[in-house]
Amino acid sequence: MPDSRKTYPVRLILGMQWGDEGKGKIVDLLGEGTQIVARYQGGHNAGHTVRFDDETFILHLIPTGILRSGTLCLIGNGVVIDPDALLGEMQVLEKRNVRVEGRVKISRYAHFILPYHVILEKCLEERGESGRIGTTGRGIGPAYADKIYRLGIRVEDVLDEDRLKHKVDRAVLEHNHLLSSAYGAEEVAAAEVLDSLLRFRDRFRDSIVDVSGYLHRACREGKSILIEGAQGTLLDVDFGTYPFVTSSHTIIGGASSGLGLPIRKIDKVIGVAKAYTTRVGNGPFPTELTDDMGDFLRKAGSEFGATTGRPRRCGWFDAVVVSFAIKINDVDYIALTKLDVLDDLDEIKICTGYTVGDEVIGDWTETCAYWEDVKPVYETMPGWKQSLAGISSFEELPEAARNYIGRLEELCGVPMGIISVGSGREETIMRGDL
Ligand code: IMP
C-alpha cells in the first residue's frame, strides 16, 4: 500500500506496460514535498503530462518535479540530452512562470543527442521497411549506440572547448562518412554541432554536477528522493519486445546504473499501469483491439502520443504483461491510471494468459518465441456504467469497479495502492496511509 515518505525516502516510479501509463501524474502527485526528483534514462522521446489548476504541462526531458516548487531536479548519466531540446523546454517553462533557474542539475556523464543521430535514425527507419521500429525520430537509438561505440560526446566535454572541438570533429567525420557513403544522406556541419554545444555550455555550465555524488549525499542526509522512469518495462532494451523497444534500460536496474545509485538504496518501487493497455510504434501487442472497441478506447482515453501526436494502439489490460513487469522490477504496489476511461462499457475484458496452438501460456517470458502467434485468453467482467468523476475513496467506487480492481490485484499479486479516475491531481484515490 502507499507509504510514508519519512519511512521510505527513496522511491522509484516506473511504467508497467509500453509507456504512456500516466507516470507524469503519479510522479507529480507523490512529488509533493519531495526534495529531489531524478530521471535515469531516455531522452526527449518521453512525454509526461501533468494537469492542475486548468493548466496542462508536457515535460519531455526535465523531471516532472520541476512543477513542484522547492524540488531539485536531477538528470542522470543514463539520460541522453538533445541540447537544443533541453534549452527549448527550459524556455517554455520559464515563459509559463515555472522557476527553473538553479533547479536542474545535469550529470557530467550524460551523453548528447546531436543532429547526425537524428539523420541516421531516419535513414535506418526508412530502410527498415517491415522491420521498422516506429521510433519517435528523436535520435535516441543512435545516441546510445555512440555511447557504446565510445564515440559519444558527454556533458562534461563542453567544459573544455579545445577537447570538445576535437571530439566533435572526430564524431562528425565518422558520421558524415557513414551518412553519405552508406545512405547518400545529407552531411552535418561540425561548426553547427559545436555552436549548439557551446550554447548549452553557456546556459548550463553551473548545472553540470556529479549526480551520483549528489544522491549519495542526499541519502546520507535522509532527504526524500523520487526516481522517475520514462517509457515502460516492455520497451526495455533487453527485457522488452526486442527489437521493438527503446534503447535504454527502463527497468529498476536502469535506475541504479543511470544515476550511480546502488539499487539497495531504493526503498519502494511503484509501478504505474493503465486500466487497459496502449502502445505507440510497432511490435507485439497481444491484447490489441483493431475494431470499434479499440477506437472507443483511443477516443475516450485521448490516446495520442504526447511527444509525436501519433495515435496509440489500444487494447485490454494484460495481466500477463503487468505481472512480468511487477516481477522484474520487484514492484511494491501499482498506481492504476485512467480507470474512468472504462466508465461507459457494458463489459471489460482482462487477459489472463495466451494460447499458442493447443498450449496455454501464463508467463510472459515463455511467449517471446511466439509473439506473432499468441492469442489472448480473456476473462470478462461487468462494467459499472456510471461516471467515476468526483470519487475520492475506494469505498465510494461502484461495486463493479471495486471488483475489477480486486481481480487485477488477484491476478497481478500486488495491491493497487493508487487509483486515478481523471487527469487532475485531485482526481485520485489514495489507499492506505500516505
Ligand atoms: P525511440 O525511443 O524513439 O527509439 O522509439 C522506440 C520505441 O519506443 C517506439 O516504439 C516508440 O514509439 C517507443 N517510445 C519511445 N518513447 C516513448 C514514450 O515516452 N511513450 C511510449 N512509447 C515510447
Strand residue percentage: 15-25%
Q: Which strands sit side by side, in order, in the main sheet? A: 9-7-5-2-10-1-11-15-19-20
How many separate structural domains?
2
Q: So, CATH architecture of the largest domain?
A: Alpha-Beta Complex
Report the CATH superfamily of the largest domain.
Adenylosuccinate Synthetase, subunit A, domain 3
Portion in helices: 25-40%
Number of helices: 12
CATH class of the largest domain equals Alpha Beta
Quick one: biggest sheet? Answer: 10 strands, mixed
Q: Mean pLDDT score, rounded?
A: 93
Q: Describe the global form.
A: globular
Characterization of the model:
The protein is 32% helix and 20% strand. It has 434 residues and is an alpha/beta fold. The protein folds into two domains: 4-103 and 210-430, Adenylosuccinate Synthetase, subunit A, domain 3 (Adenylosuccinate Synthetase, Chain A, domain 3, Alpha-Beta Complex); 111-208, Adenylosuccinate Synthetase, subunit A, domain 2, CATH 1.10.300. Strands 9-7-5-2-10-1-11-15-19-20 form a ten-stranded mixed beta sheet, with helices on both faces. Strands 14, 16, 17 and 18 form a four-stranded mixed beta sheet that branches. A hairpin with a 7-residue loop joins strand 19 and strand 20 (428-430). Helix 3 packs across helix 4 (140-149) and helix 3 runs parallel beside helix 5 (161-183). The longest helix is centred in the middle third of the chain and has 23 residues, at 161-183. It is globular. The N and C termini lie close together (9 Å). Residues 18-20, 45-47, 133-136, 138, 140-141, 230-231, 235, 244, 246-247, 280-281 line the site of inosinic acid.
